Here is the input.
Amino acid sequence: MKRTFDIPDDYFIAMLMGEPLRDVQSPHSKSAGKTSEIREHYRDQFIEHHRQLLEESNELREMIAIAASLSAKQRRIYLIR
Here is the structure.
């Protein structure tokens, strides 16, 4: 988790210890406040990690295509089943 989200050491330790993050501020934090960059990095790593499964599974690609064609509400229902 620390590596995936590029969490600075002091923030990570504060999270583990249950200390308020405002008491532990790293002036060198590159990703603090950059939620969209963190999400994009996570998404890229997720896709790369599961690339082989996506390439080899016709059924999974079909499920993704079906889910993509549904509205957000219908997609949630489809994916929960």
Remarks:
- Residues 35-49 form the longest helix (15 residues).
- Residues 14 and 20 are 7 Å apart (CA to CA).
- The chain has one domain: 9-24+33-80.
